[in-house]
Amino acid sequence: MEEQSLLFHIGPIWFDGTVALMTILTCVIIFALVFICTRNLQMKPTGKQNFIEWVIDFVRGVVADQLPSKEVGNFHLLGFTLFLFVFIANEIGLVTKIVLSENELTLWKSPTASPLVTLSLALMAILLTHYFGVKRLGFGGYFVNSYLQPVWFLLPIKIIEEFTNVITLGLRLYGNIFAGEVLLTLIASILKNFGWITLPLVIPIEMTWIAFSLFIGAIQAYVFVTLTMVFLNHKIEAEH
């Protein structure tokens, strides 16, 4: 039976309640993590402060690899926010998954296992690159830099590229996280279908795949931020 999600509507618009709740939970976890780790900051960091500073430095390094040094400070917070959201959203459904077996109603999953979430996130990231490009270069300079350089007749390809950037950025993230959840479900179904005798086989396979999926989730967060900064660099830096 196909998995079902909690559905609700506001007027004529329907929403996936499971994805909405998990997205809100992701934001709550991020806020709580940052809040706890940044309380009582000290000049000589230890423990939780060391952890959050390591994450900040890691993301800063990712941003610095793609943007000029003068721009790192301007977009570091954007990269940090994107990284934390994508990372937590990826991992939250890979650690566990809650499904009511009676009607296959899914109550717990990664928000990024939904293509609508990942494509919306990708669209937001690409729109932000356009916004910052116009803000930095003016509309005329932005248009010339983004679509008429290095030669004007590449304009149609450049326009198509904007759409493909959204699709590839979103679907790459969705495909990896969705596949991880599907395989975790299939491994767990072995125990359900063949009984407790398969427990010694299922547990090590499940634990191994969870560890691998957590690693893939972290890699995908890194890739998402890296590509966003690459696209941003193309918009804010004038080509010569």
Helix count equals 6
Number of strands: 5
List the domain count as a whole number: 1
Report Rg.
21 Å
Mean of residue pLDDT values: 84
Q: Roughly how many Å apart are the termini?
A: 57 Å
Low-confidence stretches: none
Q: What structural class should be given to the helix and strand makeup?
A: mainly alpha
Largest sheet: 3 strands, mixed
Task: Describe the structure in brief.
The chain is mostly helical and 240 residues long. The protein is built from six helices and five strands, in the order βββαααββααα. The strands form two sheets. It has a three-stranded mixed β-sheet with strand order 1-5-4.
Keywords:
mainly alpha; 240 residues; CF(0); 3-stranded mixed beta sheet
How would you describe this structure to a colleague?
The chain has 240 residues and is mostly helical. The longest helix is centred in the C-terminal third of the chain and has 40 residues, at 155-194. It is built from six helices and five strands; from the N terminus they run βββαααββααα. A hairpin with a 4-residue loop joins β4 and β5. The radius of gyration is 21 Å and the shape is globular. It has one domain (4-236). The strands form two sheets. Strands 1-5-4 form a three-stranded mixed sheet. The protein has a two-stranded antiparallel ribbon with strand order 2-3. Keywords: ATP synthesis, Cell membrane, CF(0), Hydrogen ion transport, Ion transport, Membrane, Transmembrane, Transmembrane helix, Transport. One of its GO terms (molecular function) is proton-transporting ATP synthase activity, rotational mechanism.
